[in-house]
């Protein structure tokens, strides 16, 4: 896993612009702590930071192939899991390889197939190729958007990079957030291609962007398509298992220590069991990590977390025989302002997942002492229908993003009730933004002839989860892991599995009357029954009231100092929540504390110009 950067200009001589390119590349040292490199020509400058995973000595970047018609140069982040098969095919076509890296396979794949290389890759990747033969930049992002990739047009060219901060480091890019950017921040809905920063864009998942003297063009090489599902339930379950086994096997290829993030839920436990079986065949033992908090005996179940992770994780550890580590976090570390500063810096944005981001960052930091690669269960809930709100008739009946409806959000409500309602409801009209985004999202959902109204609605729900909510979660996982130089791989995001299960009828996805019926049936034979039957629980958080008290004190300091961050919130309501007993602070108020603190750090770090109109 790595960080990439680049600058194309058809008027300037970029050979003189090493300081600017280096400034961009240096923003990503955490993404690539092992090495850095730059390549400059008259009209193209590429930078790279490397986290070495495969061919530790040979995969140096930017990687260059000199041709009789000019250089072809690539800066690449990610992994192509099918690089071995592609390399064999390219060798049969006459290509010779200098390294064992997947980077060279992707670059030579471009030389052989041009832009058609996108259709052949299986993996997670974001890359930039400067084709000096025709003076063209090619930007490519993986199908699900696992790896981030941003670009910003200039007067005579384009800038690109793995993170927003990479582009903000360039002298021509100002840190401006306009009203559309604020709607994106507050909306809890990820619009593909949109970036919060004005003038900045994301390369959309499954999309190739090219830029040359004639301008910029987009080519969508992959999207979710609707096809009739012809397999019966038994065949479907068997094929899901086959796809999962193959995905896990591919993603266990690495020349560095690797592990599985184990929560004791169905998704991570399935990955642990499959990885354990695969590694055991070669005489290896799978390493697992579970996050926990102090005073676990004081756990109190609620509507989002009905059970603790640790007991279920221990059952899986004993069942599979893993080399296990519990990572226990305390409330002082979670509330540490320096940890918050690190997570906001990693995101480049103020509003993430609050304490869960801090927790994930600390977990990954601890794991990085033992492993460089970790497998994680992202996208399983989106693919198999695992979230509770998928199964609530009251949510199914509402034409709106289901996670918005399930939060009890009406047309005059918002998940963080202490944000200034004048700003949210009138100036920005966030409910109107939701409605517009829902209409746009549903219009992109392909139809299957003969689908009844309920199947259609559930197809819409699955589609928006995969194209909107999943983007938020993948981005979070990427930022928190790469902030400490840990590569997280997501086997459930294999596009073959996503395509297959997406087109499975909802009635089959819930054939046993529960969530994730297909996945449960596919892995039942390799897991403890208690884990197979466990209900969905969201990512854990600390229940220590001392943590809430620490947040109250920090927000109180912002209020007393009249920090700019509090101007976006209802000051009276915020002050009342700060003055309450920690045990009387509800979930919305706790989240509001997280957001105002994140916002304060972001404003201090980036000094953005914020425009509300």
Secondary structure layout plus pairing:
Layout: E1 2-9, H1 18-26, E2 35-40, E3 44-50, E4 63-67, E5 70-80, H2 83-92, H3 102-113, E6 123-131, E7 136-141, E8 150-153, E9 157-161, H4 164-168, E10 176-177, H5 179-187, E11 200-202, E12 207-212, E13 215-220, H6 233-251, E14 258-261, H7 266-280, E15 287-293, H8 310-320, E16 323-329, H9 331-335, H10 337-347, H11 355-367, E17 373-375, H12 380-384, H13 393-396, H14 402-406, H15 421-427, H16 430-443, H17 453-482, E18 487-489, H18 495-502, H19 506-509, H20 517-523, H21 529-532, H22 545-560, H23 571-578, H24 587-606, E19 609-610
Parallel strand pairs: 10-19, 14-15, 14-17, 15-16, 17-18
Antiparallel strand pairs: 1-3, 1-9, 2-3, 4-5, 5-6, 6-7, 7-12, 8-9, 8-11, 12-13
Compact overview of the structure:
With 613 residues, this protein is of the alpha/beta class.
Structure, explained:
This protein has 613 residues and is of the alpha/beta class. Helices cover 41% and strands 17% of the residues. The strands form four sheets. The protein has a six-stranded antiparallel sheet. It has a six-stranded antiparallel sheet with strand order 4-5-6-7-12-13, covered by helices on one side. The longest helix is centred in the C-terminal third of the chain and has 30 residues, at 453-482.
